[in-house]
Each structure stands twice: as C-alpha cells, then as structure tokens.
Amino acid sequence: MSNTKYVADPPPRRVLTAVLLGLLCFAPRCAEAATARVRWLPSSSASSVTSYRVYARNSGSPYGTAVWTGNPAPATDGSITASVTYTPAASGVNYFTVVAVGGTSGGESGLATELPIGTPNPCRIDSCTTKTSCTLAQRADGSPCPDATFCNGDEVCQAGACAPAGGRDCSDIVDCTIDSCDEANDRCVHTAPAGCCVACDVADPCLVDSCAQGDCSAPPGEDIVVNRVRLMKKASGIKLAAKGSFFSDAMDPSVTGVEIAFLAPDGAEVYSAIIPSYLIHAGSSPGRYRFNTTRAQSDPMENGITQLDFRLKGGMWSVTVKGDTSNLEDAFLETNLTWVMRMGGSCARHLYMECHQTSAKAVCR
Length: 365
Hints:
This protein has four helices and 26 strands. It is mostly beta strands.
C-alpha cells in the first residue's frame, strides 16, 4: 500500500505496505463468507495510532463499513496481520485497504493502496481514492490488455472484455525470408537463406541484425581506419588502447550508447562491452562525446572499458578506446581480429586485422 496521511485528527501519520497473504473459505459455502489474511507494515512514526481498520469491497462498488478493527501486537519484523472475514463478490474479485485510526476524535488516515484478490478485469477501471469516491468505468475499445504471451498477438479491449488477438502476424514483404515468432525473446524473426539477400551473403558483422530480420536493403558497415589496436598483458589483466576513424551520418552516442566488440576470424565474439547512453556525456563543442571512469568503477559494469572518446571533424569521427580487464585475454590470443562498434543505427568495423604478438603485447592493424 502507498504512504498516506491523516485527513482528520490526529496529526499526520503513515500506513505503509500491506500484503494480501491468502484466502481461506471457512463457511459451508465460499460464496457466503471467506477469510483473507492481510498484512501491513506501520510507519515508524505511527506512535499515536490506537487501532487499524480493514475495509473490503466487491469489484464495481465503493467501500462500506469496516470488516475488521483491531491493533494486534506486531510480529518480529514489525508487520501486523489481520484475519478478515468478508463476503466474496460474485465476480470473484474483491478489494481490500487499510487505514490507521488515532487521536481523541478517532480520525482515520486516507486509504492505503488497494489490494485485489481474484483476477481484476483489465478492461475496466476499478479503483477508489476514498471509501466512497471511486472510478468505476469501462476502458475504451482498443485499449491494450496484454497477456504474458507474445506470439499470440496484441490483445485489446472490446465492449469491456479482453478480446483474443488471434495470433501475431510475423510476415514481412520479402518473399524468400523464413518468418517465425520467437516467444523466448518476444520478437518476430525473418531468416534470410543464402542467395535470398545478396547483401547478407557477406561476412559483415554490421549486417547481422538487419539480415536476421530480413532487411535485404541494409547498408554495409562503415570501415574503421585503424591507427592502432594494442593489447598489453598486465598483472590486472589486459590493457587495451585502440584508436581509429570512420565516416558516419549524424549520430549521438549519449542517446544510443555504444557497443564495442572484437571477433575471431570465424565470427565468434571474443570480447564485448556495452557503454550505456547515460554514462556518455556530450562535450561543450558539437561532435564531442566522452565516457571516462576508473578500472575499479568499470568492474561492476563487467566490460572493463575505462575511456571512450568521440570527436567529429569534417564528417569523419575519430574514436579512442581504453580498457583494462581480464575479459580481453581471449582477444589477446587471436592472430586476427575484427573490430566492431555499434552506435544505435550506425555501425563501423574493420575486418580481419592482423595481430603481431609477443608474450606481453599484441599490436593489430
């Protein structure tokens, strides 16, 4: 339940989270009477509270009189539990709320957040802000009422009920792609066999996502002109120092974030790091973006990148990357690497850099 304040004497106090623990039918017929266990956590400042009241209502109706009043001793975790007798609604949905009572006039706090028992109708608005002030209305036709299944489509409300979607349409406009629905990842998949999309018949890592979705018109990635990619073995792991440049349309890493990857000759990913957009800051001058942190701070991010710097000049982006992590050890061992950088819809790569190695250093170009 949400925090609430008294609207009458005594002074403001709060009633905190209430949790519906269970429902037990104890009468011969459950439709006549039932018991619910309601638990809540009082505020630490609720010293003037003299008792609590639990209210119950049927869906589609306001609250009436309290169904329980009392002030039991708190449990060891500070919570209070009440066994509440109520009449189940014909719809199968009841709502409960808790108020605190205190002061000489026995004033009540406002309602805490309502807790439903049963399955509320997602196509109806059914909520109360006070015991008698409630919003009870039908949601407009077309309002979403999604279930937990992606591939059965998008359910919407019709005449106050959630209408089945009839399955998700994953077809695209490409005749030769194989269309399917991936429930595990909540997405449609469009697989392009060899020969279907000529652009996808090349080993360009910048086309992987587009080709998997059947986008045959996807442009290849921009080529990174490599100044250097150096991997040095240290006691802490592998230190990375990479610098290059590439052409790209307008991009904003502080909005898209940046993914950095190194691939083995067979396309297997031997290192990957994602720098979230909120950690990349735009500079005072246009076309300047920077991420900077310490090795200790980069460890919780599990990527090891300590510095990322973008500068735009004459349509050419220069990029500097520094890192320090044991996660680069597999990349250090490769004699050939592909460097990939993704910035939202922009992608740049340098295919098949040759790496010259010693026991302590690898330099790739």
